[in-house]
Automatic annotation (TrEMBL):
Keywords: Cell membrane, Hydrolase, Membrane, Metal-binding, Metalloprotease, Protease, Transmembrane, Transmembrane helix, Zinc. Its EC number is 3.4.24.-. It comes from the Bacteria. It holds the Pfam family Peptidase_M48. Coiled coil: none annotated. This is M48 family metalloprotease. It comes from Arcicella gelida. GO terms for molecular function: metallopeptidase activity. The chain crosses the membrane at residues 21-50, 56-81. CDD domains: M48_Ste24p_like (cd07328). Its cofactor is Zn(2+). PANTHER family: PROTEASE HTPX, PROTEASE HTPX HOMOLOG. The keyword Transmembrane applies.
Length: 681
């Protein structure tokens, strides 16, 4: 640990952060000074008016002036009394008596990192570990004991060495004095944020003062105008301080990674970083699964075996190796579908991206002292009991309308696997169709079948071409936004070359040419795919069925674009409902909705009468859509919206989108499943 020194980049960001703090202090002291002078003038003026002619009117004016001055001064000092308390309702505290091996493990890490043992240790459910503490203005000056939060889903997804690296990273943030500046900048951020945005109690107090009399209310409103001016100044300072904090925060992550590598080695932190997205996605999948089961009053007694199953299931689907029941994700797997060559540094990001962190750790190349490959759950005395307790706490806030039924892991596996298969394409296509659609070709336009194998058509080269074209298309959109000034950045990198916004005109045509070449290549491959399966169908006497599947899909595909465009128009037309809008503008917008609804309702009628869409239209959806069609809904009547009418319309919009989206997916899946049938038959 003695060999770790802060980088030049870290020093540079630290200096910027210190300068931003100084700027805030100077600005804040100037505002305080002016506010004190202003309050004294208000107090003196109010007292003078009262003494000039003591009447109820002059007393009210005098009190109003004094209240205005005090409000402005109190606004600037209210953060001193604000304490940011971290919500612990989702956490369960554990002790050394309950988990002696885990506490000994953590004690060893803090000893190596040379920091303090956590004040308290808590368990949560998610894929996460963090050090946290309640903060206030005094946090900048007084030492504060930190608490450690450990996510049980994280422990479920890492080895002992990986867990050691993750905890060493968290403690690494507090291991050296040089890291203290990060806490200062964070607290300054909190102070300004409090002044700008956390004003509910302040506004409530001001409102109570204003309610005394209309004269006093006048001065309170005037005080708020002055406060708005102060907030404008502070917003400018906040941008500077926040930008400095984010830049420093990214450097602090690299520094904490180096600390972790010195404790556990580079490799365990790398492997955990690359797996955590999969672990988190698996956890969210299970949570969403049981969220959909609330109406059925179904929940698990222990959610973590389900989490483990989903993580390994998805890994197997993506052909990832497995060691000790943990999927192994390498950098090529991690970036398989991300083919972009566009790099824009996100100056507001608090963490560097995973690829940069992995590259920095690989450069350090610190060997593993002892690679402990057992899953981190072995550190708990009775992991099943812990998991069940955390699961109970996780679902404690859910309200069920009937007696709750516990779902066994085996039942979950059966239902999840069935749902997954129904909502994904066969892995035989190697994700070729996950983000692109099949194309129908006229049989008579086909040339002689190319001599290509199935592996040629759906191999890595073909898949890479698809995802490269998708990436270039998105890159062109982003670079066009930069060119038009919609993204305010000074420079960006593309394929390792730095560009200024004024050079976008040079780059875009080059990318468009490359995109056209790739699309032509994909089209040639798609035609070869069509011919390949046509030949296969002919050899098995299924040509007519094959062409009918393609034509049915093609008809749905052609309808979908028009249908989806209407959905987008309805969503755009109703977006204003979420914002404060003048009555006159609301009425104009409502009239626009009424006009657009004519076409929208026509489309709904078509769907309800089209037998092709009936399998995806449930009784509940049909009932709501028929209600929407039958009623003349009035969405707004001054001064309020009709929430019930709006709910009927918005539900219909979302259900319409579900119908067209679900039917499109199912028709595509039916076609692809038929292709699988041709291969397996």
């Amino acid at each position: 640990m003695q060999s770790i020194t802060v980088s030049e980049s870290f020093k540079k960001m630290t200096i910027k952060a210190i300068l931003s703090i100084c700027l805030f202090i100077v600005t804040y002291l100037a505002l305080i000074f002016l506010s004190v002078i202003f309050t004294i003038i208000c107090a003196y003026g109010g007292f003078a008016i009262i003494m000039l002619k003591p009447t109820l009117l002059t007393i009210l004016v005098g009190v109003g002036l004094l209240a205005m001055g005090i409000l402005v001064l109190f606004f600037l000092g209210k953060f001193i009394f604000k304490k940011n308390v971290v919500d612990r309702s989702h956490l369960i505290e554990i002790t050394a008596t309950q988990e002696p091996q885990l506490f000994a493990f953590i004690q060893k890490i803090v000893g190596e990192v040379k920091t303090d043992f956590p004040k308290k240790i808590y368990l949560s459910a998610e894929v996460n570990a963090s050090v946290f503490y309640d903060s206030s203005f005094l946090s900048m000056f007084l030492p504060i004991k930190k608490n450690l939060q450990i996510g049980v889903a994280l422990v479920n997804a890492v080895s002992v060495s990986e867990f050691e690296a993750i905890l060493a990273h968290e403690f690494g943030h507090f291991s050296q004095r040089s890291m203290k500046v990060g806490s200062y900048v964070y607290n300054v951020n909190q102070v300004i944020y409090n002044l700008l945005y956390e004003n509910d109690s302040f506004e409530s107090t001001a409102s109570n003062i204003a309610s005394v009399h209309s004269y006093i209310a006048f001065f309170v409103r005037l005080g708020f105008r002055i406060i708005q001016g102060i907030q404008w100044v502070l917003r400018k300072i906040y941008d500077i301080v926040n930008l400095s904090y984010m830049s420093l925060s990214r450097e602090m992550e690299f520094h904490a990674d180096e600390v972790a590598a010195n404790v556990a080695g580079s490799e365990p932190l790398i492997t955990s970083l690359l797996r955590l997205d999969l672990a988190d996605e698996s956890y969210k999948t299970v949570i969403n699964y049981y969220s959909d089961k609330i109406s059925e009053a179904v929940k698990p007694s222990n959610i973590f075996p389900q989490h483990q199953f989903v993580m390994n299931f998805l890994a197997k689907e993506n052909k990832l190796p497995n060691v000790n029941n943990l999927p192994q994700v390498n950098l090529s797997n991690y970036n398989r579908y991300n083919k972009t060559k566009l790099v824009i540094t996100n100056q507001w990001a608090s963490h560097p991206n995973t690829e940069d962190r992995v590259a920095a750790l690989q450069k350090l190349n610190i060997s593993v002292k002892e690679n402990k490959t057992d899953r981190a759950i072995v550190l708990f005395k009775s992991i099943d009991v812990v998991q069940q307790k955390v699961t109970d706490n996780l679902f404690a806030q859910v309200t069920y309308n009937e007696e709750v039924k516990d779902e066994k892991t085996e039942e979950f596996i059966e239902t999840y696997t069935k749902n997954y298969k129904a909502n994904t394409f066969d892995t035989i296509f190697n994700c070729y169709y996950d983000n692109k659609n099949p194309f129908y070709f006229d049989k008579d336009s086909l040339e002689s079948p190319p001599q290509l194998t199935f592996n040629d058509l759906f191999g890595e080269n073909a898949v890479d071409t698809v995802y490269t074209s998708i990436a270039i298309e998105r890159d062109i959109q982003t670079i066009t936004q930069i060119k038009n000034g919609d993204l305010a950045i000074k420079s960006f990198d593309y394929d390792g070359v730095k560009y200024a916004p004024k050079q976008c005109d040079e780059l875009i045509p080059v990318l468009e040419t490359e995109l056209a070449r790739l699309k032509k290549e994909i089209e040639v491959n798609d035609k070869a795919i069509f011919q390949y399966f046509l030949t296969l169908a002919q050899s098995k006497g299924l040509e007519t069925e094959y062409l009918n599947h393609y034509k049915a899909y093609d008809e749905i595909d052609k309808s979908y674009d028009e249908q989806f465009e209407i959905y987008v128009k309805m969503m755009n037309a109703t977006a204003f409902i979420n914002y404060n809008t003048p009555f006159e503008v609301i009425e104009q917008n409502i009239n626009t909705i009424y006009e657009l609804e004519k076409l929208f309702k026509e489309q709904i009628n078509k769907l309800l009468g089209d037998e092709r869409y009936q399998p995806v239209i449930t009784d509940e959806i049909k009932e709501n859509l028929n209600k929407y069609l039958a009623e003349v809904l009035v969405y707004f009547s001054r001064p309020t919206y009709d929430d019930n009418a709006l709910n009927i319309m918005m539900t219909s919009i979302h259900q319409y989108q579900y119908i067209i989206g679900r039917k499109f997916f199912e028709s595509k899946k039916e076609l692809l499943d038929f292709k699988v049938k041709l291969i397996n038959q």
